[in-house]
Amino acid sequence: MSITITAFERSPDGGKGLARDTRVRWALEEVGQPYEVRLVSFQAMKEPAHLAVHPFGQIPTYEEDGLALFETGAIVFHIAENHAGLLPKDAHARTRAIMWMFAAVNTVEPPILDLVVVKIVEGDKPWAQQRLPLVADRIRTRLRQLCARLGDADWLDGEFSAGDLMMVSVLLRLRPSGILDEFPTLAAYVARGEARPAYQRAFAAQLAVAVGAAAQAGAAR
Ligand SMILES: N[C@@H](CCC(=O)N[C@@H](CS)C(=O)NCC(=O)O)C(=O)O
């Protein structure tokens, strides 16, 4: 089986692991599947060859023996379904792990993305400063609820699963804002995810791309 994913040629986060290829790399590392990476520029992402795989012109994509996927939820689910290690065997526990994947991308990630939008995309708008605390409070509400459910458990539902992989990946995007650290239980949950050897390998792989891109830019100067 040959797997190729796409990632930013130059990630805007400079290798902090916040671009969404990291979660796909992490899933592949958890299940021990080797993969190739095709790096794409912002321009190439909007061109027909890439749009044929990703209609919204984004990364990551996933290609495997004639199958082409986009959307990290679907990609991680596909990986988890086809390889042992990311979904429990018990039918109910498996469905609950999938539920947590949806909760991560559909309930927790949207307000976190709103924060990025209001800070960066809409940062120069006159109402941005007024909107910021509203968005931050919506995130805090979700984090309080998530904290209450996690309690003192290591993972959301028994063993580590694709649900945790997606949830930790989503929460990681909050770290630069400082809001994650207001919730020590969740900060520790994220740290547990980051400490997994598979995450470490995924992080190192995406960082190597950023370091290479920076070196290339330096050499061109
Ligand atoms: N819901 C999508 C979001 C994909 C996404 O937003 N990708 C970002 C990188 S992390 C991207 O390609 N941004 C560039 C753009 O939208 O032009 C997923 O989970 O795969």
Uncertain spans, ≥5 residues at pLDDT below 50? Answer: none
Instruction: Give the names of the bound compounds.
Output: glutathione
Content-based structural category: alpha+beta
Quick one: overall form? globular
Please describe what this structure looks like.
There is one protein chain. With 221 residues, the protein is an alpha+beta fold. It is 59% helix and 9% strand. It is built from nine helices and four strands; from the N terminus they run βαβααββαααααα. The chain has helices at residues 21-30, 42-45, 48-51, 72-82, 91-121, 128-150, 162-172, 184-195, 197-220, and strands spanning 3-8, 36-40, 61-64, 67-70. A four-stranded mixed β-sheet has the order 2-1-3-4. A hairpin with a 2-residue loop joins strand 3 (61-64) and strand 4 (67-70). Helix 5 runs antiparallel to helix 6 (128-150) and helix 5 runs parallel beside helix 7 (162-172). The radius of gyration is 18 Å and the shape is globular. The mean pLDDT is 96.
Topology readout:
Elements: E1 3-8, H1 21-30, E2 36-40, H2 42-45, H3 48-51, E3 61-64, E4 67-70, H4 72-82, H5 91-121, H6 128-150, H7 162-172, H8 184-195, H9 197-220
Parallel strand pairs: 1-2
Antiparallel strand pairs: 1-3, 3-4
The structure holds glutathione.
The site of glutathione (GSH) has 7 residues, from loops.
